[in-house]
Please model this.
Amino acid sequence: MLQKLSKWAVGALVILISVVFVLQFGGPQADGIVSDGLQFAAKVNGDLITAGDFNAAYRLANFDQQPEEQQERYGMRDLVLNGLIETKLLAAEARELGYEVESIDIMRNLAENGRAYLRLGFDAPEGFSPAGGQVQVPVFDRSNRFDEEFARGWIQHRLNRSVSEFSEMQVDYAMAERMIQTVGSTVEISPRELWSAFESEKERAQIKYVRFAPGYYADTLDMEDAALEAWMTSNQEQIDSTYESEQASYTDLEEQVRARHILIRSAESDEEAERASARLRAEGLLAELRAGADFVLLARTHSDDSSNAPRGGDLGWNPRGRMVGPFDEAQFGTPEGTISDVVETRFGFHIIQVVGKREGDVAEADAKREIAERLYRTARGEELAQEAAAAVLAELQGGLSFDDLSDRYTAVEGEEIDWRRRHTAALSVSESRRFGRGDSVLTGPYNSAPLNTAVFAMAEVGDLPEEPMTLGEDVFVFQLAARERANREEFTDDVRQRLAQGMLRSKRREVVRSYISRLVTEAREAGTIRINQPDPQLEDEDEAAAEEEEAS
Model:
């Protein structure tokens, strides 16, 4: 019969159903399903958000159906309460502008579309807030027709609200949504912004670059007493401050050894002949050391432990039990200032030089010198990295190519190379992938945004920066290797429309975010927001009341 009715008749019927729904289920007989009394979740400009309002919104979002751990992890209570507070503020602004939303409109939306309004806090994680500020609710029967009885039961027993309470909350939500649309409608996208977005989408660049790691220069620094003492004189305040914060680590120490080692690597699974060859190499190095060779130099040149070979094999201070058994026994059994015999462990064959031993309290002067060595090594490593980067950049600006750098710093198989290149390259020569204006240029712990900006400011392939760039702890020198530019012919009306839609969504969101943030900030500063987190027990009581009502 409905299919035969004209369009206006269908509309009239929906309005009639909506009116009946409000009159039948929104009157006094439906009020007071939950008596909130003086309990409240928050007050906004004197307007009450009851605990029942909060619980209804929480259930409307279906958050109560989520695991407790997930509710806590995502702060779902805060999302709902913030949404209610923001809604009150936005609805008040909408009323100031003269906007109106009637309960009949809310019920018409429910009857026609089966949707209810819901707002979470604006900073809710992506995917939490409902699209268009509305959620689908179960008020249709199996024939997809509005079911008055079922809708009444859903409002009363699921949300624990009377129809009038539900419609009042929905009016506020709808008013807030109207205000959000009003604020968002003020946003425009200029032709310049569209072209910039098109450039960002289409332009690509590629660079060749070299990375200078201060840690490498710090590790390979030959500590000279005169340079260290001069630095200590100029940085005594920093040394004293560090000692004050670390003093406990130099007090009441168990026995410790500071040792260097040379490792000739050989796995226990190696053939016997390979193990014998490795031991023979170690014994040959030991003979050189017994004859007066420099331990630091031999460690840098021959040790297979690349983590400390650049430091001359220095392992720092170690207590008993930190190293594998045979090594530990040997380092604590070797007198200070002497060199052990060849020591075999599961890693291979070691030669150990014991530099020092200590126990108990370390003298303040010794502790401060140790701290100074560490601080000086770090500071000097940073200086040397900057100096090396500046020198290489000068060579590139003078006509040296990156290929020349690659040849200089990349080892060729069978080539005789010094220990610096054998263990850790003084610099790393690399080529990036092609990247856009908003992309990350480098992999690793870097914020490469400044590098990206500098690259796209370059005019021609082959351009170099005026000075090295520091990103994180490392220093970089780079050169523009390739550049793809945006084409005006490809900047069609369809492209402009697509870009404008995406930009409008993003820009409107930021404008609305700023607007809501200002409303909340002003209200908090004026003291007109009062939050009283709902008692979890109240939720339990509400749920019990709902179950009891449903059972009856």
Remarks:
- Residues 1-10, 19-38, 411-417, 534-552 have pLDDT under 50 and may be disordered.
- DSSP finds 20 helices and 13 strands in the chain.
- The first strand starts at residue 40 and ends at 44.
- The two ends are 36 Å apart (CA to CA).
